[in-house]
Design brief:
This protein has a domain at 6-112: TATA-Binding Protein (2-Layer Sandwich). With 329 residues, the chain is α+β, with helices and mostly antiparallel strands. The strands form two sheets. It has a six-stranded antiparallel β-sheet. The chain contains 16 helices and eight strands. Its EC number is 3.2.2.21. Residues 1-34 are annotated as: Disordered.
């Protein structure tokens, strides 16, 4: 059940560190919609994969439980606020991308997903699926916002990657439209391309990852087209860029395309987690992981997601990976 878009009155929005915008429709006016999915609604479960750490400047959970997202849409920058009200979600959006974001709300919350295609063949997955009825795979329709942070996460700890994302988005992005002055829209492709080498270094990003991002933003328009493709075609499009391999393409299309079978290979932890959960093999590698997930062909990403949600992970034995610090070099 889709609601009508309703414009809110124009207001003055003040962003700390920037010149206040007086009555600008792109920044100050909001549009709203209400949508009720025919399944149990769980905003955090659906949108959790889009958050890059607790300090992500593009994503925030408010004290009232609402979720805020700042995006660079095909129509321009936009901010989206989502709040669960009973079995429905109330959406409010600001900026040039407001209408585009509201149109995408059902897909964002999993309307394009088909959980009925998944048949659990292990008790752990059956139990977890039953306990998480609100699990739906998001589809953002936006490639670069997932691709760039995924490149930042290549071969480093998540903490290092999240720090780099925070520094670069806050330093080179723009304050998000709307009333939340803590949110930022990520830089546009041209701005990414103009970031000086020493700023990448200060953010702890080595030349291999920064060069991959620079190659990607030069082809941003063509890469964004991948959001409308079938997941396998989308991955092939992304992997045409040197430095983007199966790990990065899977991490991207899981979010941009809602790809239920885009299992992540080349991950430091996932094979061991899947091996432990499905076969008691703590030291499983990618080949063994794919073998264990073969019964879920077509839904392997969903199976892996359920395993992660189950909390059934192997006990930690090896020391934690020590983060590098190229900014100190």
């Amino acid at each position: 059940m889709a609601g009508r878009y309703a414009p809110r009155p124009t207001r003055t929005t003040t962003v700390h560190g920037a010149v206040p915008v007086q009555g600008s429709p792109a920044r100050a006016r909001s549009r709203t919609r209400s949508w009720a999915p025919p399944w149990p609604l769980d905003l955090g479960l659906a949108l959790g994969p889009l958050r890059r750490g607790h300090g992500d400047p593009t994503f925030r959970t408010a004290p009232d439980g609402s979720l805020w997202r700042a995006c660079r849409t095909p129509a321009g920058p936009g901010t989206l606020r989502l709040a669960a009200r009973g079995g429905a979600v109330e959406a409010e959006a600001w900026g040039a991308g407001a209408e585009w974001l509201l149109e995408q709300v059902p897909s964002l919350l999993g309307a394009d997903d088909d959980p009925s295609a998944f048949t659990p063949r292990h008790r752990l997955l059956a139990v977890t699926e039953r306990r998480r009825p609100g699990l739906r795979l998001t589809r953002t329709g936006l490639v670069m916002e997932s691709l760039i942070p995924s490149i930042l996460e290549q071969k480093v700890t998540t903490g290092e990657a999240y720090r780099a994302w925070r520094l670069l988005v806050r330093g080179y992005g723009e304050p998000a439209p709307g009333p939340d002055n803590r949110l930022y829209v990520m830089p546009e492709p041209r701005t990414w391309a103009l970031i000086p080498s020493w700023e990448w270094h200060r953010a702890g990003v080595d030349s291999k990852r920064s060069s991959t991002i620079l190659r990607a933003v030069r082809a941003a328009r063509r890469l964004e087209e991948a959001a409308t493709m079938e997941p396998e075609q989308a991955r092939q499009r992304l992997e045409l860029i040197p430095g983007i391999g199966p790990w990065t393409s899977a991490e991207t299309v899981q979010r941009s395309n809602g790809a239920p079978d885009a299992v992540t290979v080349g991950d430091y932890h996932l094979p061991g987690i899947v091996g432990h959960a499905l076969a008691g093999r703590r030291e499983a590698d990618d080949e063994e992981m794919l073998e264990l997930l073969e019964p879920y062909a077509g839904q392997r990403h969903r199976a892996a997601r359920l395993i992660l949600l189950s909390g059934h992970t192997p006990p930690r034995r090896a020391p934690r990976f020590t983060p590098g610090n190229i900014a100190a070099l």
